[in-house]
Amino acid sequence: MTVLAQADLRLDANAIDYVLLAFYFLLVLGIGYLSRRQVSTSLDFFLSGRSLPAWVTGLAFIAANLGAIEVMGMSANGAQYGMPTAHYFWIGAVPAMLFLGIVMMPFYYGSKVRSVPEFMLRRFGKPAHLVNGISFALAQILIAGANLFLLASVVNLLLGWPIWVSIILAAVIVLSYTALGGLSAAIYNEVLQFFVIVAALLPLTIVGLYKVGGWEGLVDKISGGAGGAEQLDSWPGNQLTGFGSNFLSVLGLVFGLGFVLSFGYWTTNFVEVQRAMASKSMSAARRTPIIGAFPKIFIPFIVIIPGMIAGVTVTELAGENKEALLNGDAAPSGATFNDALLLLMRDLLPNGMLGIAIAGLLASFMAGMAANLSSFNTVFTYDIWQAYLRKDRPDDYYLRTGRVVTAAATVLAIGTAFIASTYSNLMDYLQQLFSFFNAPLFATFILGMFWKRMTPTAGWTGLVSGTAAAVMVFLLAETGVWDLPGQGASFVGAGAAFVVDIVVSVVVTYATQPKPEPQLVGLVYSLTPKENLRHSTTGEDAGWYRNPGLLAGIALVITIVLNFIF
Amino acid sequence: MAHESRSRRAGVFDIRLIIALLIGVYGAVLTVLGIGFTTDEDIAKAANVNINLWAGLAMLVFAALFVLWTWLRPLRVPEDVQAAQQESAQ
């Protein structure tokens, strides 16, 4: 990315673009200020006082994940691999989101825990709680750093500022609204960000499609270029997984990405679950991920397609450049796939629309980073500080702690931004992280929720050995002992983590003592009275369009149809 | 819980209006740019589409719909606070 900036490929932004950008930042800080007045307890700060409507938490649910990593990384993937990238959305997100809303949310919201690690504490006790709390906090700091780095590279390209100046400036802006308004400020801004991102990317996609002569034109150009027509169909996606065999590729996608990675990420990642926990009723909490699934189904079209268009029209990425990059070499132009979206914007958008597109990119950066910070401060304050270090203080002590922790986390994220800058494809980096932390977590959760015999010792040993298995696969792939190119390594790592976690948990369970059953009410399916898991269907929760099951069914049908088309 | 309802009533604002404000201003600026200030060169660059004008108009329509939604289904704070309190009391 630095190579490109040095080559003087600055976006040609003028005064109008900066005014549009400034207006956006004014509203972002304004939301932080307005939300501050709603914060009077630590629950207000960390969970928005559990008061938000479902459409707000649903859009925030999706925007928290629609960070710069997603937007830039997925368009990079689009340029590199083409339509198979859509698996990250259709296989790798939607089913898990629906599962979270239908099956798991009743336990999360019904048990009134304040975080995912707190659920671990009540189900498995302290060791599992600590392992989960610390690994989650660590992952958030690393991911926040990746978000920061991406923003810095956007600003570097746009204004020519040094990377470190933009990293610090951006960190200060996100910090100011998350520390002031807590989760409400983060969530309201995420909703705003969602609309700005769409307002930025939809026109870009439409102009891009005109440029290549519509969908037909894109098909012709991709078929004729490096990578070939294989990039137009999402299945079997050999280039994406790095597996030569179609069967292994499909298996890797369905089990590795679709089952372990995606369920691990969407159902146990507190960044996401926290948004649902902030909603105002059980019904709204269940609808949060389901409402989020609808935009998620259609986001590939405004993220991947611009990437694919960039891969065949942008001079620096098309032709011999794409060929070189696909072979793992540097492109003669010095560009990388991560630049796809920026280069396409430069080529197509006039001033005015360009300003909004830049605002959209910066918005997506902030959405991601604010989500990392707001979930980090909750877990750190409730699950590490309050649980182990400073117990039984008055509530306003923890509210103040939350604000201080947010600031400290920002400083740490500035450090990790420099780690992120060493990976060429940021999505590879992220998938590695998720496979380390999330895949074993999902295995432990699903066993723990449905198997009352599972013991506290099994909880933490399963987690630790699962993470160790993922790290082993990562090291084998990294040192070249096991040759897994593309993103196949993280799929295999996630699969290994899941299987090892299950096996270890089962073996350890039969060797140790389970928790007494009365302590597991509300946490394990067979011991929870059915009415605790049901939501109300009256008042604000009435009507067929507010029925989680029906909404989930509609989303599922749309996803299946799209998989047949592409 | 008394202090909580006070803070919520004092601090309430409707995110829908802020979204409409942002997108509406963007739409107005883009529409004006598209009608008066977008050069033929710009239009040629964007594959012969006056994207400022069309995106601007679409954003104005979107903003108007959000204002309409806010107007038809206003926030009802007192009920929400009561419902939240009843639920947390259970």
Descriptive account of the structure:
The complex is a heterodimer of chains A (566) and B (90). Chain A is 75% helix and 0% strand. With 566 residues, chain A is mostly helical. Chain A has one domain (2-565): Sodium/glucose cotransporter (Up-down Bundle), CATH 1.20.1730.10. With 90 residues, chain B is mainly α. Chain B has a domain at 23-74. At the A-B interface, helix 2 and helix 10 of A face helix 1, helix 2, helix 3, helix 4 and helix 5 of B.
Taken from the alpha-carbon principal axes, the silhouette of chain A is globular
Low-confidence stretches of chain B: 1-11, 78-90
Beta-strand share of residues of chain A: under 5%
Number of strands of chain B: 0
CATH topology of chain A: Sodium/glucose cotransporter
Q: How far apart are the first and last residues' alpha carbons of chain B, in Å?
A: 13 Å
Task: Note the total helix count of chain B.
Answer: 5
Largest sheet of chain A, in brief, is: none
Please write the string of helix (H) and strand (E) elements of chain A: HHHHHHHHHHHHHHHHHHHHHHHH
Total number of β-strand segments of chain A?
Answer: 0
**Helix count, DSSP H or I runs of 4 or more residues of chain A:** 24
Average pLDDT over all residues of chain B: 73
Low-confidence stretches of chain A: 1-8
Q: Whole-number radius of gyration of chain A? A: 23 Å
State the share of residues found in helices of chain B, binned by percent: over 70%
Overall pLDDT of chain A, averaged? 80
The largest sheet of chain B is:
none
Structural class of chain A: mainly alpha
Short overview:
Chain A has 566 residues and is mostly helical.
Helices and strands in order:
The complex is a heterodimer of chains A (566) and B (90).
Chain A (H helix, E strand, L loop, with lengths): L1 H5 L8 H22 L5 H6 L6 H12 L2 H14 L5 H4 L3 H17 L5 H9 L1 H34 L3 H49 L2 H11 L13 H4 L4 H23 L1 H8 L4 H32 L6 H7 L13 H9 L4 H37 L5 H26 L5 H25 L5 H23 L9 H24 L18 H4 L14 H18 L1
Helix pairs in contact in A: 2-10, 2-18, 4-10, 4-14, 4-15, 5-15, 5-18, 7-13, 7-15, 7-24, 8-9, 9-10, 9-18, 9-19, 9-20, 9-21, 10-11, 10-15, 10-18, 10-19, 13-20, 13-22, 14-15, 14-18, 15-17, 15-24, 18-19, 20-21, 20-22, 21-22
Chain B lengths: L1 H10 L3 H23 L2 H6 L5 H22 L4 H13 L1
Keywords (chain B): Membrane, Transmembrane, Transmembrane helix
GO cellular component, one term (chain A): plasma membrane
Keywords (chain A): Membrane, Transmembrane, Transmembrane helix
